Amino acid sequence: MLDFLVRDVLHDKLNKLSPVFWLLATPYSSHISALHHQIVHGRNIVITENLGLHLLWHYDKVYIKPLPPYLTSYTFWKLYLSGDTPASSALRRAALGYMQSYHYFIQHRSDFDIAVEKKLVDATTDFAELLYFLQSFRDISDNEVTPRFRYGELRLGHLNLYSKFYLFELHYHKVMGHYGPYLAEIIAPFLFIFATVSVALGAMQVVLAVEQMRVGGIEGWQAFSSASRGFSVACLFLVLIAFSFVPGIVCFFLLRELVFVLKHYRRT
Question: How far is it, in rounded angstroms, from Cα 64 to Cα 56?
Answer without folding.
Answer: 8
